[in-house]
Amino acid sequence: MGISLEDISTFYNQNTLSNIFDHLSNLLATQETSIKNEIALLSAKLKKIQMMKSHYADITANLGGNDPETILIKEIPGRIIIYKEYNGEYTSSIFRESYKMILDRMQEQGLDFSNICSPPLAIRTISKNSQQVNLKIGYAIKSPLGFEDFQKITLPAGHYACVLHKGNYNSLRKIAFYETFSLTSTLEIYYISEVTTDITNIFLTEVQIFINNV
Q: Does the reported pTM lie above 0.85?
């Protein structure tokens, strides 16, 4: 049951039956608390895995016919994004930290992960200084109910120019797609990223740029 040899020795060395059972009760209560904490942690991890599994099933269906580096025009419904804002150097570590912070905060507030309806994403504001970026890092959600304390932004329904890119973030920033449009900001959806793998050359990102309203 995870009881240490030291605790067992202490248990058997009690001088009265009352002390023996009191000590045993305390040991079991400690074990109960420990196991409940482990279950809570495993439950949270399971929910995150189930969320990712659901997203990747949708991704397979939605991106089956898309070729990397090919521009497509898609009609996309409006989306509500919860995010954590970042200003600074464009590095992969900021994404992992930001997503974890959002998911941990949702868990603390008792919000269901099933309300998240997208893979990890970020709204990136284009900067002349290639080393500095403004990122709104987060997820799309089904409903804003319960997310009053989170930073939120609504993306309009409309037509979006979209392109898939396979490769790391440095190569992503150099794709010709960015030169095709006069840009102020883009939405980057990280289908395969550092959240799921450390192999950067298989990262798969979709860049979306708003064109017009439906």
A: no
